[in-house]
Amino acid sequence: MLKTIYLIMSIQISMKINSLIYFFKKVPLIKKTLNNINYTFLTLKRFLGVLSILYKLISTPIKTALIFLLTIFLPTYFMLEKNMRIMGILILVFSFHFIIKIISSEILSTDKEKFILVKQMRMHPKDYLFAKIILEKSLSFISKTLIFSIFFTYFDLNYTFGIKLTIMIISFELFIESLHLFLFKKFEFNINDKNMLQLIIFLVITILSYIIAFNTPIKYYSILLSTLTSLWTCFAFLILGIMGVLYIYKYDNYWDIINEKNTIEDFQTINNIYKDAQFGDVKINEKDYTTNDLISNDFSNKEGYAYLNAIFFNRHKRVIYRPMRIKSFIIILSFIVIFIIQSFFTNKLGKNLIDFTINRYTFFIFIIYILSNSNKIVKSMFYNCDMSLLRYGFYKQGDSLLKMFFLRLTRIVYSNIIPIFILCIGLLITVLIYNPSRIIEIIPVLFFIIVLSLFFSVHYIFMYYLFQPYTTDLRIQNPFFSFINGFVYFISYLSLQINSPASIFLPITIFIVIVYMLIAIILVYKKSPKTFRLK
Amino acid sequence: MELILNNITKSFENKRVLKNINFKFTKGNIYALLGRNGAGKTTLFNILAEELKSDDGNAYITIDGNREELTSTDLSYVYSNPILPEFLTGYEFIKFFIDINKDKLNNSLSIDDYFEVIKINKEDSHKLIRSYSHGMKNKIQMLMFVITRPPIILLDEPLTSLDVVVALEIKRLLRKIRKDHIIIFSTHILQLAKDLCDEIAILNDGKLTLMEKELLKYPDFEDQVIDMLKEKEDYA
Questions:
Q1: pTM assigned to the model
Q2: If you average pLDDT over each of A153-162, A169-178, A377-386, A460-469, which comes out highest?
Q3: Which residues, 6 or more positions from B115, have their beta carbon under 8 angstroms from its beta carbon?
């Protein structure tokens, strides 16, 4: 078994190093120096084995400590008085290290390593799974003993409590694994198939645990503590653990486990889930369209790229126009609520809203950032249209690209500007009804809002044409794209804090935004035939 | 009409995939571009289709004695794995394609007629491409060159994953249109090359060589090709 463990660890570390090198080979500056490295030097097995043991011995305790710190220690530290903290911690330990463990099984899970080692490298599933569970639990035992002893000594509980607690946790986990194996053999029940159930139980337990931990009266603390610290409890758990290990060792159904959850199809599903997570929200669904939708002559008056674009936006109503309608509706509703409150409850709201609009107009930068939907539209353009058409020469030519860019831009502007117009009209009506004397002051703000909406419409599609950040395997590749988008978010957020006089700030921002849009259009014209490519 | 490759060279990292390729393709022939996996067939196609830049050398096309540099508009490139915009129906895609090529077309078939050519019925032509099988998508790709009739047609392993019926239909289609085109057909399946093509060009060790036509008639033709592929590999 030791040999198997050693082999598993070597393979784990070599997979890690390979993917690390692969990742670094994509980074611009480092790329060149790594080009000559091949992966064969990693076959130095002895070196790898030692490296992996060291890595595991260091990384597992760090992980354990971090998880403990973030999920258990810090929440109780901030939420509870000093004398209550230890109780909060014990309750959370009980939930997260015992109760939550019931709803999943490591042995019955789908993972790539199982597939590689058993299916591809023909290791016997029993040798592999048993060695693997012993390896994981031993590492977990070492880390938990270390971390818990330190933490509980800090809380004036004896360090032996840390050790006892670790024994109980590991024994319980082993017992639960054996229970899942039993259920799988007897009823073909695999808890890992019930993802929704797992998620719901996980959320319920987590929320409940925090509520209970932060609200339990101190008197229950001694009961919990004495139960957990009692040697008898520890002994009982230990017996369960030993039973668990024996069951796992004697289990004879390992091939079924591997065949049930680790087939090549399972890994394709995992990859698809990954893609879905990235692009699922913009996927089109055949069922959304009737045969008549697909035969209709609605677009026959259009030609070429205009035809393509019209159909694209029509088939993506769900992604494009539905959010537009929802946002418009929310804005209308907000104004109605404001008018009702103003009419029946207080007569100050209208005036305050006008003051706010004129004095804190930078707030709208953030509002419009949130209202603009361009990012999602750009994503669906790539996934459903450009990813395929960019493979054809005719689509990549400069004038075709520009035609599409402007056709798309008009549609995006339209979808973003409707809610914004409604917002502006609402503000205008508010001024006209409640304080007509300020109409001159509010007009530049409305102009500012409209220009900003144009900015957000241009920005995303401009970035898209300039960087084309997506790869055909659907991961964002270009770091500048993410960086600039993050930066725009940051600026929008920062604008909430700006408090400068409108007479200076408004014209400057409007000017900058207009110049930006002009530069964007020129750059798309000049650069996109080179940059708008499949990666 | 001729397609002339002049000194085309391409390396990836430290590996030279194409080494000073000089070659002449002439109209009216279907060429098989035969090579082992990884020989550089797709790389050569990508360079001709301007998807990839060569490190050195150029490709030219001569029509009626006029020699010009090859551009992607002179050719149609059919991928082994057809990728089409799935939000359109087959009909819509072909209408779009005809629209944007309107000024280059001189035949007056209707869209329905075109679907008739590739044997996709009317009902299916109005379904989303998303629901099409691999074979149907492949036929749509073929239709693109049937419509525009560019001088050069590149097909990257096009028949390898098609069922027998579709493969036969496509073979017939290629034979029907070959007299006006240079058709280059990359494959690593020897039998297919012999069966469909007029000439066989072998890409091995970064070099492209034409097999003598006479060889095709010999019973030991297959052994000879395999010898050629092996021999050059040994030198490498």
A1: 0.66
A2: A169-178
A3: B90, B91, B94, B121, B122, B125, B143
Residue of A294, A385, A394 with shortest CB distance to B85 = A385
How far is the C-alpha of A267 from the C-alpha of A263, rounded, in Å? 7
Q: CB neighbours of A395 closer than 8 A, spacing ≥ 6?
A: A386, A389, A401
DSSP symbol at B6: E
Other C-beta atoms closer than 10 Å to the C-beta of A61 total: 19
Amino acid identity, position A394? F
Per-residue pLDDT band for A15 (boundaries 50, 70, 90) equals confident
Could you tell me the two tokens for A299?
């677009």
A99 DSSP assignment:
I
Strands (E), B27-123: 29-34, 56-63, 66-69, 75-78
* Cα–Cα distance measured from residue A392 to residue A370, given in angstroms and rounded to the nearest whole number: 35
B25-36 burial code (b ≥16 CB/10 A, e <16): bebeebbbbbbe
Contacts of B98 (CB under 8 A, 6+ apart): B105, B111, B147
Domains of chain B in sequence order: 2-82+150-228 (3.40.50.300)
Specify whether the CB–CB gap between A411 and A313 falls below 8 A.
Answer: yes
Contacts with A, B 123-142, CB within 8 Å: 126-128, 130-131
Residues of B in contact with A381 (CB under 8 A): none
Give the CA count within 13 Å in the CB-facing half-sphere of A338: 21
CA nearest to A294 within chain B:
B126
| Residue contact B77–A393, C-beta within 8 A | yes
| Dihedral angle, C-alpha A354, A358, A360, A365, nearest 10 ° | 100
Instruction: Give pLDDT, residue A87.
Output: 83
Cα A225 to the center of its chain, rounded Å: 37
Give residue A38's pLDDT. Answer: 56
Strands (E), A128-251: none
Q: How far is CA A326 from CA A285, A323, A525, in A?
A: 21, 5, 34
Mean pLDDT, rounded, of chain A: 83
Alpha helices in A188-230 (DSSP H): 195-215, 221-229
* Chain A interface includes B147 (CB < 8 A): no
pLDDT above 90 coverage of chain B, percent: 25
- Report strand pairing: B152-156 vs B182-187: parallel
Cβ-based contacts of A286 with chain B (< 8 Å): 128, 130-131
ipTM rounded to 2 decimals: 0.81
